[in-house]
Backbone:
C-alpha cells in the first residue's frame, strides 16, 4: 500500500444543478475523505471550477479522477501535487479585544477587518499550517469565532491546461464533423 | 406583413404543441416504436397525448414499474436500440431504481421518463413527490429535471444521445406536470456532441504498436471477450482478428454469443462458474487481450493473482475501466469496432494450435467430470443442466435465451450453446432476481422474429410474477422454463459449501404455478420425469402463444466448476 499524499484536484465542469453532489459522491464511494473543497465560476464564462484537496494514494487519486471525468457534465480534471501549485486559504478570527492581542495580531501580518469595543475581527491568508498556527496563538486571548475557507490554487506551469484541452476538443469536433460530412 | 409571414413560416416549422405532445414527437424522431410503462397522476398528461399516438407508438402496459425497466432492457439488449419507459412520480419512479442500477452495471441504453409534481410544488413534500434526480444520481449515466415545456425537446435529444453513445447506459428525464401541460413551439435538433462529454476516446498510436508487438511475440495468449463487442456491433471485426491472430478466445457472461460456441478457437466462459480451461490456464497465459470487458470480480477471482504471468492489453471504450481492477500493460482506449481492425491489419498471421489443444485437453476433463454428471445424472430428479440441454437441442442452439439470476442462469450460460450474437439476455453486474420474466417480454418484442426462451427459478419468478398479466394482455409469446427446485438454489449451494449446510430460509413452499399460469391464459405443463423432458419441450416450442413449462428439478444440485469467492481463478474446483 502506497503512502497517502496530498493532492490538489481541479475539476472544470458545466454549471449544472446537482453536479457538486455527483462529484463528492465519487470520493465517498471510494472512501476518500475530502480535506477541503471550493467552487466558483472559472475565468471562462459558464465553466465552473472545483478545487478539491484530498489525502490518498497515487493509485486511488488516479481512479477517482477518472470516475469524476466520466460524469457527463464534467469537462476535464487535473491532479497536482502541492509543489506544482501556489495555494492559499483564508481564515477569519473574531477575538476578544485586549492590548496584548492587538500586539500579537500586528506581528503576524494580518488584516484587521473590524474593531469593536469588545472584539476585533482579523483575516489571515496563507497555508493551512499558518492559519492554524495563528489560531493556536490567539486561543489564550479568547477566540469567539474562527472560520477557514477551502484551498484555492493556481498552477505554476506556464501552460494553461484547460484552454489547451478546449482547443483540442474543438479540433476533435471539427474532425468529427468533417468525417460525418464525408460519410 | 413581413412579420406575419415570418410567424406563419415559423408556425409551419415550429408548430405549437403541449409538452406531452413534444415528448412523443421527440420519441418518433429518435426512432422509438415501443414504450414500456405504467400511468399515474404526475404522468397523466403524457398518457392523454399518447392516446392519439397509439398508431405510431406501441405502449406495453406492465404490472409493476420495475417490470417496465427490465422489459426495456430486454428490448434494448436484443435489438441494439434504446429501450424507453415511462412512469409516474413518487412510488412509480422509485420502483424503477433496481432496473436503472441493473442497466448501469450492464451498460444498457435506456431512457426513462418520470412524471414529477408541478414545479410550484417541488420541494414541498407534495403528494407522490420524491427527489428522483437526487435518488437516481448513482444509478444513471445522466439525468435531468425539466420544468419548462420549451426545454423538453432538447432534454430528450440529449437523453437519447447520452444513452446510446460511447458506453451506453440509462438516462432519466424527470418532467414536471406543468411542463407536460404547457404549450410551446416544437423544434427538435438531434444532438451529435456535448462539450463536456467524450463518448469514444481515441487510442494512442504508440499503444497500437506496442499491442501489435506483444501479440506477435505471445506464445500462450488468450483473448477475453466482453459485452463491448456486442454493444459495439464488432462481431465481424472480432472474427477477423481471431482468424488472423489464431488465438484461443474466451468470453465473459455478458460477452456470450459474440463468438459462436462451436467456433474452433472458442474455449469457453470465464469466471466463477465458467469453463475449466480459461480459468485453470490463467496462470500459464503470457498475454491476455481483454476486448470490451471490465474485469468483474466474478471473472477475476482474486485480482492480485489474475493473469499474474501475463501482459495485459485492454481494449475498452470507458477510460475509467482501464486499470480499475487489473492494471493494463497496454491500454487501447476506443470503440473495439475501430480498434480491433487497427490490430488485425498490423499483426502477423499465426496459429496457436498446440496452445489451443491444451484447452481442448481441459475440455475433455470438464466433460468427463462436470458435463457428464450434470447432463446425464445417474437417476433421481431432473437436473437443471439436462433441462437446458434438452431445450438447446430442441431449438438447435438458436434462440434468444433470457435468464433470471442464480443456478438456472449459470446452467443456461454453460450449457445452451449459441450460434448468433445477441442471444443471451441476463443480469450480469447487478445480479437482479426478478429480471428474467419482464426482460423476456421486452426481448420478444425487440426480436419478434426470434424464439425467446426464459430460464427462471421458482424464487426469481415470484419476484416479478405479476408480469404474466402483461404477457396475457399484450399476447407476448415467450416460452418460460421454470426450473423449480423449491429452493433459492444458489444461496443454498453456498450454504452447503461454506456455511455447514445450514439452510437458513432458502427453502420455498411454493404456490401452484399451474393455476397461476392458467389464470393468466398461458399454456402450462409440469414434468417430474426425465423421460417426459423432450416431449414437453417440443410441446412448449410448438405452442403458438406463451407457455410455462415447469420442470421439477433436483434441489440438492450444485453448479460446478466453481471458483470460490476471492480465490485465484486457477484454483477452480471441478466438484
Residues:
Amino acid at each position: 500500500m502506497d503512502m497517502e499524499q496530498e493532492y490538489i484536484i481541479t475539476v472544470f465542469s458545466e454549471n449544472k444543478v446537482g453536479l457538486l453532489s455527483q462529484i463528492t459522491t465519487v470520493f465517498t464511494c471510494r472512501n476518500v475523505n475530502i480535506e477541503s473543497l471550493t467552487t466558483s465560476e472559472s475565468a471562462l464564462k459558464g465553466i465552473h471550477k472545483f478545487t478539491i484537496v484530498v489525502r490518498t494514494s497515487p493509485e486511488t487519486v488516479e481512479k477517482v479522477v477518472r470516475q469524476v471525468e466520466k460524469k457527463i457534465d464534467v469537462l476535464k480534471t487535473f491532479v497536482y501535487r502541492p509543489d506544482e501549485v501556489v495555494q492559499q486559504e483564508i481564515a477569519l478570527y473574531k477575538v476578544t479585544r485586549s492590548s496584548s492581542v492587538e500586539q500579537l495580531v500586528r506581528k503576524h501580518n494580518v488584516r484587521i477587518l473590524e474593531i469593536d469595543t469588545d472584539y476585533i475581527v482579523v483575516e489571515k491568508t496563507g497555508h493551512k499550517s499558518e492559519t492554524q498556527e495563528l489560531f493556536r496563538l490567539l486561543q489564550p486571548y479568547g477566540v469567539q469565532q474562527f472560520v477557514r475557507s477551502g484551498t484555492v490554487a493556481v498552477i505554476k506551469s506556464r501552460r494553461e491546461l484547460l484552454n489547451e484541452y478546449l482547443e483540442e476538443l474543438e479540433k476533435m469536433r471539427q474532425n468529427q464533423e468533417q468525417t460525418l460530412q464525408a460519410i | 406583413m413581413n412579420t406575419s409571414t415570418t410567424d406563419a413560416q415559423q408556425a409551419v416549422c415550429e408548430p405549437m404543441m403541449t409538452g406531452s405532445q413534444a415528448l412523443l414527437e421527440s420519441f418518433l424522431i429518435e426512432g422509438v416504436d415501443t414504450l414500456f410503462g405504467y400511468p399515474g397522476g404526475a404522468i397523466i398528461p403524457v398518457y392523454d397525448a399518447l392516446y392519439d399516438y397509439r398508431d405510431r407508438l406501441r405502449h406495453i402496459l406492465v404490472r409493476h414499474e420495475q417490470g417496465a425497466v427490465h422489459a426495456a432492457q430486454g428490448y434494448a439488449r436484443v435489438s441494439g436500440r434504446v429501450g424507453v419507459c415511462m412512469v409516474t412520480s413518487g412510488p412509480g419512479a422509485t420502483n424503477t431504481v433496481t432496473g436503472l442500477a441493473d442497466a448501469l452495471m450492464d451498460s444498457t441504453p435506456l431512457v426513462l421518463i418520470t412524471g414529477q409534481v408541478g414545479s410550484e410544488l417541488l420541494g414541498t413534500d407534495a403528494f407522490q413527490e420524491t427527489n428522483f434526480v437526487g435518488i437516481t444520481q448513482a444509478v444513471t449515466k445522466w439525468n435531468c429535471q425539466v420544468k419548462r415545456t420549451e426545454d423538453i425537446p432538447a432534454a430528450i435529444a440529449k437523453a437519447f444521445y447520452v444513452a446510446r453513445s460511447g458506453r451506453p447506459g440509462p438516462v432519466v428525464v424527470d418532467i414536471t406536470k406543468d411542463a407536460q401541460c404547457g404549450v410551446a413551439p416544437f423544434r427538435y435538433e438531434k444532438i451529435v456532441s456535448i462539450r463536456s462529454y467524450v463518448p469514444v476516446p481515441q487510442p494512442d498510436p504508440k499503444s497500437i504498436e506496442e499491442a501489435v508487438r506483444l501479440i506477435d511475440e505471445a506464445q500462450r495468449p488468450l483473448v477475453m471477450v466482453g459485452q463491448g463487442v456486442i454493444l459495439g456491433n464488432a462481431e465481424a471485426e472480432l472474427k477477423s482478428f481471431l482468424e488472423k491472430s489464431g488465438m484461443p478466445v474466451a468470453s465473459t457472461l455478458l460477452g456470450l454469443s459474440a463468438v459462436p460456441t462451436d467456433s474452433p478457437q472458442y474455449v469457453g466462459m470465464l469466471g466463477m462458474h465458467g469453463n475449466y480451461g480459461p480459468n485453470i490456464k490463467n496462470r500459464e497465459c503470457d498475454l491476455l487481450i481483454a476486448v470490451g470487458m471490465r474485469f468483474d470480480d466474478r471473472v477475476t477471482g482474486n485480482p492480485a493473482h489474475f493473469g499474474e504471468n501475463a501482459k495485459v492489453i485492454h481494449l475498452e471504450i470507458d477510460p475509467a475501466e482501464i486499470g480499475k481492477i487489473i492494471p493494463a500493460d497496454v491500454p487501447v482506449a476506443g470503440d473495439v469496432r475501430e480498434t480491433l481492425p487497427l490490430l488485425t491489419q498490423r499483426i502477423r498471421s499465426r496459429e496457436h494450435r498446440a496452445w489451443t489443444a491444451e484447452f481442448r485437453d481441459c475440455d475433455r476433463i470438464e466433460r468427463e467430470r462436470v458435463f457428464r454428471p450434470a447432463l446425464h445424472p445417474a437417476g433421481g430428479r431432473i437436473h437443471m443442466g439436462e433441462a437446458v440441454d434438452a431445450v438447446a437441442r430442441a431449438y438447435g442452439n438458436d434462440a434468444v435465451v433470457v435468464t433470471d439470476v442464480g443456478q438456472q442462469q449459470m446452467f443456461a450460460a454453460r450449457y445452451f450453446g449459441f450460434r448468433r450474437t445477441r442471444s443471451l439476455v441476463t443480469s450480469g453486474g447487478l445480479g437482479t432476481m426478478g429480471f428474467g420474466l419482464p426482460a423476456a417480454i421486452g426481448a420478444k418484442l425487440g426480436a419478434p422474429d426470434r424464439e425467446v426462451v426464459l430460464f427462471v427459478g421458482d424464487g426469481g419468478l415470484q419476484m416479478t410474477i405479476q408480469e404474466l398479466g402483461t404477457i396475457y394482455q399484450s399476447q407476448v409469446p415467450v416460452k418460460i422454463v421454470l426450473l423449480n427446485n423449491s429452493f433459492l438454489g444458489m444461496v443454498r449451494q453456498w450454504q452447503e459449501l461454506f456455511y455447514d449446510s445450514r439452510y437458513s430460509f432458502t427453502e420455498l413452499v411454493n404456490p401452484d404455478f399451474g393455476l397461476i399460469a392458467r389464470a393468466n391464459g398461458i399454456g402450462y405443463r409440469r414434468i417430474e420425469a426425465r423421460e417426459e423432458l423432450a416431449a414437453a419441450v417440443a410441446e412448449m416450442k410448438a405452442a403458438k402463444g406463451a407457455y410455462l413449462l415447469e420442470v421439477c428439478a433436483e434441489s440438492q444440485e450444485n453448479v460446478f466448476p466453481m471458483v470460490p469467492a476471492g480465490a485465484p481463478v486457477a484454483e477452480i474446483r471441478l466438484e
The mean pLDDT of chain A is 89. Chain A has two domains: 1-80, 86-152.
